[in-house]
Specification:
By secondary structure, this protein is mostly beta strands. Among the domains are: 172 residues, Sandwich (Jelly Rolls); 47 residues. Strands 7-10-19-12-13-14-15 form a seven-stranded antiparallel beta sheet, with no helix packed on it. A seven-stranded antiparallel beta sheet has the order 8-9-20-11-16-17-18, with no helix packed on it. A hairpin with a 4-residue loop joins β32 and β33.
Length: 465
């Protein structure tokens, strides 16, 4: 495959040009008509393999299905009968935690197991029995230390380092417990460290008991307190934000508009603390929690432009106002950009839809809550979507408050000559492209011929053999 990749803006800037013969040119780069100038040397585009402005781009680490993203690790506090099991797939963490064992009960069980083991080993050489005895003594000493310290922390956690004033946020998609049990809780946390008896704050949901904010030392929150909101149920967004001497707890139903639940003042946390997701086990044998959109950092979702996804795979990231079968009316027109409603596969209004499993063979509205309402798209006007449903008849949804995306028809990528990635989030699959100092003139099937300004260009890749 022959690839031409241009990364960065089409303006004068330092960088490097990779030629197809393997040579590399360093210096000031400027894009001319169907050519590249490097410190005044003109190179035809046909001879260029790649162009990089500024620092050479670094590859983003790819997360292999089933492994945890960089920076996250699983930790059990307390004595669980089995270690925390974690799965990660397409932005969703699934945590499976197991029953917490009382230290005294565990010691009794260990003694019983040891006695049975020693009886079975009576005929073994003395050296092997001494090794087994030494291992037993070591475990007994550890149990006694934990009893003396009266360790009360018993959490299964996915933790990530948090430095300075920052936040941890996630959407709790669901919490499943064994039938007849409902004491387990799941949510987000902040901790001074990962040792026992550390100052910690947690924002968790427990079955139908609502959301609870706890803070203090140890599992019982010594020196802290508790605040509860009864009316919330999963899926729910949870966020803990750390500032100069305080911790704030927030809840939300869409991840965009947050309600302040409580503020704890005079909090002394180290510069580098721990934050992440947790399951606080009750007496259940097992509990499973599912989280998505987990972030440790600024506590905000990435900047997002509304997207019109065409049936051929092109994504136009540009605010739009009205959509009908005849046309899509954009908030700001771009000369040559013309999209008909009959060519649209999806309308995406929220970044929450980006990692949702949007069905490709159903039509309807994906709600911010994660629910999907089946129906045929009838139009968008004045900020409201209308769909026609067999069950509900004509139904409207507010874009700002309810809808995350609309699915009109399947997406089936068509053959294209180039793929153009833009800084605003657009991904254009084009049949023709012409480069110029001002930008790239593209011919996009079902979207027209228009110019992508230089400042909006990020990557251009040739898809031809």
């Amino acid at each position: 495959m022959v690839c031409l990749v241009l990364c960065g803006a089409f303006t004068l800037a330092g960088g490097e040009v990779w030629l197809r013969d393997g040579a590399r040119l360093l210096g000031e780069i400027k894009l001319a008509d169907e050519a590249v100038e490097v410190d005044g040397r003109r190179v035809p585009v046909a001879a260029v393999r790649a162009i990089h402005w500024g620092e050479p781009p670094r590859e983003t680490p790819k997360t292999v299905a089933g492994t945890l993203p960089t920076g996250w690790k699983a930790v059990d506090l307390g004595m669980h009968k089995q270690p925390l099991a974690v799965a990660y797939d397409r932005g969703q963490f699934t945590m499976e935690a197991f029953e917490v064992e009382n230290p005294r009960n565990r010691m009794v069980r260990i003694k019983q197991e040891f006695v049975a083991k020693m009886r079975a080993m009576q005929n073994l050489p003395l050296a092997e029995r001494r090794v087994a005895m030494a291992a037993f003594r070591k475990e007994v000493i550890a149990m006694k230390r934990q009893q003396r310290a009266q360790v009360t922390d018993a959490y299964s956690m996915l933790t990530h380092s948090l430095k300075g004033d920052a936040a941890v946020m996630a959407r709790l998609d669901g919490l499943e417990t064994v039938e007849g049990f409902r004491a387990s809780q799941a949510g987000v946390f902040l901790r001074a460290g990962l040792g026992p008896q550390e100052w910690a704050a947690s924002l968790t949901m427990q079955g139908d008991q609502g959301v609870t904010f706890r803070w203090g030392v140890g599992r019982n929150g010594r020196g802290g307190g508790t605040k509860r909101l009864q009316q919330l149920t999963a899926p729910v967004w949870l966020k803990l934000e750390r500032g100069a001497g305080f911790v704030m707890a927030y809840v939300s139903d869409d991840g965009l508009k947050w309600e302040l639940m409580h503020v704890v003042e005079n909090v002394r946390l180290p510069v580098s603390a721990q934050a992440g997701l947790l399951i606080n086990m009750g007496r259940e044998p097992k509990a499973t929690a599912r989280f998505s959109h987990a972030r440790v950092g600024d506590g905000k979702l990435p900047t997002f432009n509304p997207q019109v996804v065409l049936a051929n795979g092109t994504v136009v990231a540009r605010a739009f106002e009205d959509v009908s079968e005849a046309r899509v009316r954009f908030a700001e027109s771009l000369e040559g950009l013309v999209v008909r409603g009959e060519d649209v596969a999806r309308l995406v209004f929220s970044p929450l839809a980006a990692v949702e499993r949007i069905p490709n063979r159903r039509t309807g509205v994906l709600l911010r809550s994660g629910d999907f309402v089946d129906g045929e798209f009838a139009g968008l006007k004045d900020g409201r979507i209308t769909i026609s449903s067999v069950l509900f008849g004509k139904k409207e949804f507010a874009v700002e408050e309810e809808a995350a995306a609309v699915v009109l028809r399947p997406v089936r990528k068509r053959t294209a000559a180039f793929e153009v990635h833009c800084a605003d989030g657009s991904v254009l699959r084009v049949s023709g492209l012409k480069l110029a100092p001002a930008g790239a003139q593209v011919d996009v099937p079902a979207a027209g011929k228009f110019v992508v300004p230089a400042k909006n260009l990020s990557t251009i890749r040739s898809l031809s053999e």
